[in-house]
Structure formats: C-alpha cells, structure tokens
Specification:
single chain, 5-stranded mixed beta sheet, Helix Hairpins, 10 helices, Heat Shock Protein 90, 3 domains
Length: 393
C-alpha cells in the first residue's frame, strides 16, 4: 500500500510543483481535483487556516473530519508539522464511528416485517431510547504538502483486514483449545490407571469427562467441515432446485423429540410453493442450527415458531425461526454470527455449545446468494431469518 500511495503522491506533488501558471495557491485546479477523485482511498485537503476545502465522504464517516474541520488531534498535528517543515508523515490511526439503533420500533412506525414478527409472538410495541453502538476504524494516514498553503491527508481504511486477522487469530486459538481438552482428559485417565489403587468410581468419572470432551471435539470438527463446504457459491441449475417446505419439515421432524423432552412445541407455517436453488444438505444444516438454538434458549413448555414465506416482491423466500428465550443484548447482536462468539445469554442447556452454529447459518446464506439476520429484544425472545432467492421457473 505504501508503494502505491507513493506513486500517487509523486503525481500529486510533481503536478503542483510544475504548474507555474497556478496563480491562486489556496485553491485546487481541475487536474488535481480529478487526480484526487481517482484515488482508491479518502483524501482531505486543508488550507493555511486548517479549514477543510475538500474532503471525501469517508473522511466524515471514519471520524476524521466534522463540520469542515479535522477533529483528530494526531492528524491536525501532522498537518502543522508538514506545513512548517515539509516532507510527509505516515502513521496508523484508530477512530470510532458511533451510530444509534432502536431496540423496538415506536408505535405507528413498524415495517411490515417487524409488525408480522411482533404479532406472531405476541409482542407489544414499546418505546425505548436509542442505544449507541460504536465501531472501531483502523486507518493508515499519509500527510504531505500540495503547495505552500495546501496540505493533503490521504486515509486508507484497513479495518476489514484487521478484523479478518482478529477473527483468524481467535479461530486458531479456539480450535487449539478444543483440541487440547480431549488430550488432557486422556492424560488424566492414563495417570489414574497407571498409578493403580484408584477406585472404579474415579475411573468412571474421568472416563465420562473424556467422553464429553471427545463428543465436543466431534461436534466442533463436524461444524468446521460444514463451514468449509459452505465457502463456494452455489450456482442455480435445474439439478439443485429444491422445495423449501421439504427442507423445513425434515429439520422439524428430526428435532421434535428433543423439543418434547422439555415440553416445547414446534409450530410450523410454510408456503409449500417456495422453491430455491441450493444444496439440500447445507440448507438443512443451517435450519437445524436455528431450530437447535431456538429449543436451547426457549423456556420449558413454550413454543418455537417457524414461518416460511415469500417476500412482498416475490423474489426471496424467508424462513424465520422465533424462540421464547431471554433475548440478546443489543450490543451483542452485531457479533453473534462470528465464529466461536458466544453471548452472555447462556443457560443450563447451552453449556456444550462452541459458537459455530450461527457462523454456519451465515455462510450457508452467503453461498446461496442470500442473507441471515436477527431481531431480538431482551426479555422478548429472538427471531432469526434465513433469506434466500427464489428459483426461477
């Protein structure tokens, strides 16, 4: 990135140095404006009074500029140093973008989808204050002179690559921890047997712990294989045209016994005419994760609702799974589809989870050119939706 920015930088500075006909030094000529507009990153131009005379919209959304003024002290200090001493300065910067979100829409302003969700599970419309959510931005910044009066700030947003690295590191750490647990349990059991004189009860207890660790490991490996399979986009063909109702019914029937053990009823309302293009095994795996979660987090004796219908435009099939749990905190909802992420709303039934279920749902949705989403409010349960494009005739 530094080399590419360097070439852009030389083009900018050489163009301004060679332009002897530029009489007004505190304005940008058309050529410089055109060059800045072609940059694959955000640019900010500041005059001798520290006023922003040109800024890419991203400079505002990334928290560097507000009201035509640079609000980041480190950037402003670099502008002053470059203006006085020349040269250029390069540094990393982390900013924060804050946005507001509403837990429950105000009365009279519900969308069709939100109204349907609330009517289905008996929710009431409640006015609640907006919640502030912040998102970090990781930036690389270059500051240099355009002319005697003008300074340019080039901003590259590398947040996605940083987040990917963080997820990768977390992924490796979590997998390593899961692989170590069966080994540790096996070593403990071997020590007990080797030492002799141990009661049969101790051997059985350690053997049970080993079995639990192995079961958990098998579960993780199975989920990881599902994630790997859900990486390649699915191309629509006549051979992979499947009925949505059949996939939902197969998943529901395989989970009725588990639900019945806690007196939970599964209620299914599906449009039998919905067809999508996809891999049946992947679709059922994603739906199974949603149904398993709904059963796990719902209260004993409650009902899990599954609804499958087309959107108003008739272009997508939406399968919604509604639970009767405690809901998900608003600050966690943006992270629950991350691999290995587990929220604070765990209960006695979710202890064996490893945090890959919703990641599988998300990747299955993406490979089928669809999306996965959540609606939740503390105390009112959660609704997860798997939205997939309908198959053509």
């Amino acid at each position: 990135m530094v080399e590419s920015l360097g070439s852009w930088w030389r083009s900018l500075t050489h163009r301004n140095d060679d332009d002897e006909n530029n009489a007004d030094d505190d304005t940008l000529d058309d050529a410089t404006n055109a060059l800045l507009s072609m940059l694959p990153l955000a640019s900010v131009v500041v005059d001798e009074h520290d006023e922003v005379i040109r800024a890419h919209p991203s400079a505002y959304s990334l928290g560097v500029v507000r009201d035509d003024v640079i609000i980041e002290d480190s950037v402003l200090q670099a502008v002053h140093e470059v203006r006085s001493c020349g040269g250029k300065k390069q540094f990393d910067l982390t900013t924060t973008t804050a946005y507001a979100t509403q837990r429950v829409p105000k009365a009279g302003k519900l969308s069709t989808r939100e109204a349907a969700k609330q009517a289905l599970i008996g929710q009431k419309q409640v006015d609640e204050p907006a919640v502030r959510v912040s998102r970090p931005n990781w930036l690389k910044v270059i500051v240099g002179k355009l002319s005697d009066k003008l300074v340019v700030v080039l901003i590259s947003d590398v947040s996605e690559s940083v987040r990917f690295s963080q997820i990768r590191d977390s992924f490796i750490t979590n997998v390593s921890e899961q692989l170590l647990k069966p080994t540790q349990s096996l070593e403990q059991l071997a020590d007990i047997v080797e030492q002799g004189g141990t009661s049969q009860q101790d051997v059985e207890r350690n053997a049970m712990q080993l079995r639990q660790s192995c079961t958990r490991l098998e579960h993780m490996i199975s989920d990881l294989l599902l994630l790997i399979k859900a990486q390649e986009p699915i191309l629509p063909t006549s051979d992979n045209r499947i009925n949505v109702m059949e996939q939902v019914r197969a998943v529901v029937e395989s989970h009725r016994e588990t639900a019945a053990q806690r007196n939970i009823t599964i209620d299914m309302k599906c449009d039998e005419s919905l067809f999508i293009n996809g891999e049946a095994d992947q679709i059922q795996a994603a739906l199974a994760k949603l149904v398993e979660n709904a059963i796990t987090y719902s209260r004993d004796g409650s009902t899990v609702n599954i609804v499958a219908k087309a959107n108003e435009e008739g272009t997508e099939a939406a399968v919604s799974v509604l639970d009767r749990g405690d809901g998900i905190a608003i600050g966690e909802q943006s992270r629950i589809f991350e691999r290995f992420y587990r929220g604070d709303n765990q209960n006695e039934h979710s202890g064996d989870g490893i945090g890959l279920g919703l990641a599988i749902v998300k990747h299955v949705a993406l490979t089928h050119h669809g999306s996965a989403s959540v609606w939740s409010s503390p105390g009112q349960g959660s609704t997860f939706a798997l939205v997939l494009p309908l198959a053509g005739e």
